[in-house]
Amino acid sequence: MAKFGMSMCVLGMAGEFKDKGVAVNALWPKTAIDTAAIRMILGPQSSKGARKPEIMADAAHWIFSQYRCSQGREGDL
C-alpha cells in the first residue's frame, strides 16, 4: 500500500473509531531511516544523511504517552 493510501486509511479509521475513544495514528518519516533493509538494497552509503531508527521509537513513545489525539491532525514531531 502506498503512503497516500495508508494515510487515507488512518484518517478513515480515526473517524470511524472516534466515538469509541480510539485514536488511530501513523508515523511517516520525512527523511530516510537507516535500517538494515535500506543498507541491503541501497548499500552502506545509504546511511549517510539518514536518521537513526530510534527516532521512530521516540515518536511512537510520544504518541502513546498522549492522553488523546485529534482526528485528522497532521504535523511534524
* Strand elements, count: 0
**Tally of separate helices:** 3
How much helix is in the residues? 40-55%
Q: Determine Rg (CA atoms, Å).
A: 15 Å
- Please tell me the total number of domains: 1
The class by helix and strand makeup works out as mainly alpha
Largest sheet: none
Into which percentage range does the β-strand content fall? Answer: under 5%
The helix/strand series, from N terminus to C terminus, equals HHH
Low-confidence stretches: none
Distance between the terminal alpha carbons, to the nearest Å?
Answer: 23 Å
Mean pLDDT: 83
Spatial shape: elongated
Features:
3 helices; elongated; mainly alpha; 77 residues
General description of the model:
With 77 residues, this protein is mostly helical. It has one domain. The protein contains three helices and no strands.
